[in-house]
Amino acid sequence: MDKKATGISAKQRRLAATATVLALASGAAAAADASSVQIFGIIDAGVLTQSKSAAGGRLTRLETSGLRQSVWGLKGTEDLGGGLKAFFNLESHFDTDTGGLHGTGDNGTPAVGTVLFRRQANVGLSGDWGTLILGRQYGPALLAHIGTEPRAFKEQFSNLYAWAYNQLEPIAGAGSVNSNNDVGIFFKNSIHYRNTFGPVTAGVLYSLGEQAGSTSNNSILAVGLSYSGPVTLSFSHEFMKDQITGEKVVKHTGVGAAVPFGDFTFKANFLRGENNNADGTTSSKVNGLGVGVDWKWHPMNNATVAYYDNKDKENKSNHTKNLVLSNDYFISKRTTIYAQAAFVDADAGATGAAALKTSIVADGSFKPDAKTTFINVGINHNF
């Protein structure tokens, strides 16, 4: 081609080429700016003492995760344009007192073992249409009750444990197994859709059973709904099927409400956990009732009083009544010092593995047929 005929000089062509390169570089930089990766975590430790223990007398120990679980993880997002985003979550659970990975409640019988990313290992997409998450993740049922559980499912002295242990048996006992269920909180092999419709947030999760010849065996369905308006309301339901028989070996339902009134928030939450054997017969049916009040008595302090009454209707001597007093002192946005006391009145049947089903204590170490006092003081730091 005749360069003169084009009317573009060599200098102009070089300038145009430079401008093109700069534009491409700018676009690449913008794309890079549209994505981010973040390391995050919680480190929590304190001292826990109890007046009696299931094994004998007074016990004092360094306790991990009194307020919230100790975790570290990576999360990232990328803006794909048009309101669409990609994201991932990797979250590992460890014990601050030993530095070891926290044991899990999945992977068959018995319910032992460690998983590097126990809490989350997932990837997904989000947009105006909602959020789709694939992989190991938190279930929508528990998430629905965070605002209505009297102590917001704190790691110690809440019905987090009555929730969890009432969904552990299909892994550890009675010859029934659902290998996707890690204490009804974390689910493997899962597809989870979430969306918010005005004041209502809804989540539906399905864990694929991955059993040859059956799409039902070993599967899980979990649903959670929450309403945030003048009051907060919550509802959940989930069931888990046996790996071999396809029987519903766990059925779990919850309802809750929270009502603010000035510096106070009054809360009530009811949980029903039913465990069945692989042949369909019922082994336990636990009703867990929690009521409480939060008091924001100072900009840096929040106090809570909560009462829990947990009873197995199939084994009526497995019954605990629990009173919890606590205060969280927010030194900064990242660091909290907490003090909490629990008074546990346990009937004679609240012993051994059965005690865990009615427990608000992480390891169920209260003494059966007795009253046990627990005091826990610790520090929680977020990064």
From TrEMBL:
<feature type="domain" description="Porin">
    <location>
        <begin position="19"/>
        <end position="348"/>
    </location>
</feature>
<keyword id="KW-0472">Membrane</keyword>
<feature type="signal peptide">
    <location>
        <begin position="1"/>
        <end position="31"/>
    </location>
</feature>
<keyword id="KW-0626">Porin</keyword>
<keyword id="KW-0812">Transmembrane</keyword>
<keyword id="KW-1134">Transmembrane beta strand</keyword>
<keyword id="KW-0998">Cell outer membrane</keyword>
<keyword id="KW-0406">Ion transport</keyword>
<dbReference type="GO" id="GO:0015288">
    <property type="term" value="F:porin activity"/>
</dbReference>
<protein>
    <submittedName>
        <fullName>Putative outer membrane protein (Porin)</fullName>
    </submittedName>
</protein>
<dbReference type="InterPro" id="IPR033900">
    <property type="entry name" value="Gram_neg_porin_domain"/>
</dbReference>
<dbReference type="InterPro" id="IPR050298">
    <property type="entry name" value="Gram-neg_bact_OMP"/>
</dbReference>
<dbReference type="GO" id="GO:0046930">
    <property type="term" value="C:pore complex"/>
</dbReference>
<dbReference type="GO" id="GO:0009279">
    <property type="term" value="C:cell outer membrane"/>
</dbReference>
<keyword id="KW-0732">Signal</keyword>
<dbReference type="InterPro" id="IPR023614">
    <property type="entry name" value="Porin_dom_sf"/>
</dbReference>
<keyword id="KW-0813">Transport</keyword>
<comment type="subunit">
    <text>Homotrimer.</text>
</comment>
<dbReference type="Pfam" id="PF13609">
    <property type="entry name" value="Porin_4"/>
</dbReference>
<dbReference type="GO" id="GO:0006811">
    <property type="term" value="P:monoatomic ion transport"/>
</dbReference>
